[in-house]
Specification:
Layout lengths: L5 H11 L13 H12 L3 H14 L4 H16 L15 H16 L7 E2 L2 E3 L6 E6 L4 E8 L2 E9 L2 E2 L16 E4 L4 E2 L10 E4 L5 H5 L8 E3 L11 E3 L3 E2 L2 H7 L9 E5 L4 E2 L1 H23 L3 H5 L2 E6 L5 H12 L5 E12 L6 E12 L3 E12 L5 E8 L1
Parallel strand pairs: 3-13, 6-11, 10-12, 15-19
Antiparallel strand pairs: 1-14, 2-16, 3-4, 4-5, 7-13, 8-9, 9-10, 16-17, 17-18, 18-19
Helix pairs in contact: 2-3, 3-4
Length: 392
């Protein structure tokens, strides 16, 4: 297999993608790198070299920038429009760097409607200021601000995922999981080996749904890069999501422990705000009906909202039925209300929704307030049913 040079890589990029004129500012060094590639595409090598010289001087550990800079110097010296050294495999990690370049460049050529929103973020509760969505196949992490329940894109960053890709199943498979997770802690750099960079945010993998499906493993984090490197190839971790330390430093401001959801999906799916509103309304209608049937004390109607394969932290469906019938038989009235609703569509499963809310309950012998999490699944007949219920 021939080894590509950086110049050959540039030609490949120009041949297979339309240059994105509007390169958004980011916290790292991606913008000047892509500007240099744009200069090369327009045959302005002097400008490209000047930009890359400043970039490698400022960030010498940025190996991709070093590779392109070196090849452009060689190109100028030899007055050649096509360079490359024949060789095999991944000599000096060049193929890894080319994979990184393709991922960065291709992201900038993606186009979606200006008012498009991610399909997974159906509704964000008011107490969650931000949400992160990772597009595993495109090596990209998106940051969304919660503006009155609607996600608004405020930044995106290049990331690396597991060596063997995504859809983690078992311990040690070196894959990144797909699912809905939450940041559980912040680990500062001084508590970590240099491999994790300037910090880490552990995620709650495996979640309830992962465990229900028999998935195993642990230690899935969002963290920085080794201190002696700027970035890593698209697939380079043992399953974690990693990004440059410079980007990680900026990202820290958006992350709130125990609150910030991190949704890892295979491909980012964008929808219109109208589509998101329609799906949100559909689930709210189901929640209202569930509350109505619960407070009616018609236990059969209430239990009809639960799937036959329902499970809770300590009960299966049969045990849940027995428990609820016994409890409801003791009540002369039941009042239930909810607020601060969050709805997240499960990645790669558009029939599964994670719903969270604050629930207030009152009856003739009990009064309580609790955070609740439910998993709702859309059945083949179009009806939504609860497959999991427990504390959030």
């Amino acid at each position: 297999m021939p080894r590509w040079s950086a110049w050959g890589m540039v030609l490949w990029l120009v041949a297979t993608a339309v240059f994105a004129e509007d390169i958004r500012h980011d916290a790292g060094h991606e913008q000047p790198l892509l500007r240099a590639l744009s200069n090369v595409a327009s045959q302005d090598l002097d400008s490209a070299l000047a930009t890359l010289e400043r970039l490698v001087d400022k960030t010498p550990e940025f190996r991709l920038a070093q590779l392109i800079y070196a090849d452009l110097l060689l190109t100028k010296a030899q007055s050649s429009a096509s360079l490359g050294v024949e060789g095999g495999g991944n000599v000096d990690g060049v193929q890894d760097l080319l994979a990184e370049a393709r991922a960065r460049w291709q992201h900038r050529t993606l186009d979606h409607a200006q008012d498009a929103v991610p399909a997974v973020l159906v509704e964000l509760p008011p107490d969650i200021p931000t949400a992160l969505v990772v597009d595993a196949a495109s090596s990209r992490l998106y940051v969304f601000e919660n503006r009155q329940g609607t996600p608004v894109l405020v930044g995106d960053y290049y990331v690396s995922i597991g060596k063997n890709g995504f859809q983690k199943q078992v311990e040690g498979d070196k894959k990144t999981p797909l699912g809905v997770y939450y940041v559980t802690a912040h680990l500062a750099a001084e508590t970590l080996p240099p491999y994790y960079g300037i910090g880490a945010f552990p995620l709650n993998y495996p979640n309830e749904w992962d465990r229900h499906l028999g998935k195993t493993g642990s230690g899935i984090w969002l963290h920085g890069n080794p201190l002696n490197s700027y970035s890593r190839p698209p697939q380079a971790s043992d399953g974690c999501v990693t990004l440059s330390n410079l980007d990680f430093k900026v990202l820290q401001a958006y992350i709130h422990v125990e609150k910030t959801p991190v949704i890892i999906t295979q491909h980012m799916h964008w929808v219109t705000r109208e589509e998101l509103t329609t799906r949100r309304a559909e689930l709210h209608q189901q929640l209202e009906l569930w509350v109505h049937d619960w407070t009616s004390r018609d236990t059969d109607r209430y239990l009809a909202h639960y799937a036959p394969d329902f499970f809770s932290p300590d009960k299966d469906f049969q045990q849940w039925q027995t428990f609820k019938r016994a409890v409801n038989a003791q009540k002369s009235f039941i009042e239930v209300s909810y607020e601060h609703v969050g709805m997240l569509l499960y990645p790669a499963q558009d029939t599964l929704m994670m719903v969270e809310f604050e629930q207030s309950y009152r009856s003739d012998n009990l009064s309580s307030h609790a955070s609740k999490r439910q998993w709702w699944r859309k059945e083949q007949n179009g009806q939504w049913r609860i497959v999991y219920e427990g504390p959030a």
